[in-house]
Amino acid sequence: MALAILVPGGGGMLGTELARVSPPDNLLVAPASHELDITDRVMTAAGLGRFVAAARRRGLPAVVINAAAYTNADAAESDKDRAFLVNALGPGYLAAACREHGVPLVHVSTDYVFDGEACEPYEPSDPANPLNVYGHTKLAGEQAVLGSGARAWVVRTAWVYSSHSANFVRTMARLEQERAMVSVVNDQVGSPTSTGDLASGLLSLAARVTEGAGPAERLLHYVNTGRASWYEFARAVFACLGADPRRVRPCTSAEFGRPAPRPAYSVLGVRAWTESGLPAPRPWPAVLQEVTASLRAGTPVPDRAV
Description:
This protein has helices spanning 13-21, 41-57, 73-76, 80-101, 133-146, 168-178, 195-210, 230-240, 253-256, 271-275, 284-297; strands at 4-6, 27-29, 62-66, 105-110, 152-157, 160-161, 182-185, 189-190, 193-194, 219-221, 228-229, 248-251. By secondary structure, it is of the alpha/beta class. It has a domain at 4-165 and 192-225 and 267-282: 3-Layer(aba) Sandwich (Rossmann fold). Helix 1 packs across helix 7 (195-210), helix 2 (41-57) packs parallel to helix 4 (80-101) and helix 4 packs parallel to helix 5 (133-146).
């Protein structure tokens, strides 16, 4: 079934992937933040109204996938007001507009809502306890969306990367060319996730919710399965690029030094996702090979301005 999909934040990494993997019979509208600013309540309501009208003209069911976010965790420590506006108030405005128009909403959140004290994968029902401003604002956004009265689902993900845009894998590929040795933290463990796989998963969820068959659980996790430290992930990137992984050396978070504290362990469990009948995520090592093969071939998706 073809869908009409509105993707606020369409100029970013996830928005780019949603446009790339969406079937051609869908009407996918992916405005950048200057075209649809979810922090502007009036602009958001008007933009959604125009989108719904266009969907009706084409006879397509409408759904919103919110990819707009303030994602720079370190900058958020000193830019709290802006981070809260984009990550908390904005999703609330968007959810309110979706409620008014009767349009379902899929909102994307983060593993950084957890404190990292666990020793096994976090499930959606586990208590959140963010360590940094970014995590606090994303948790507030989840609460705003789920408490809005809209037909809304929140999908947490983690450690996203792709063959385009600024992300860890592309940074490692660049550093492999520039440096003899690269230091990467070994005391943060998470779930490396391809944005392409995430986009496909979100589209599957969007199709379900527009059919009126959305999961009973409104809070879900989607990540590629398995776990790795950033150090292990970097070594895997080097190996996939044909470089010597021994050129990556471990360091601690304290040695690296970042303004925003990170959870030491933020592996996400996908049981609620798969038990809802949604397509099971793939293991991260196999997906990484695909993405790095694209980089090695020199055929990444072109960068788009965020």
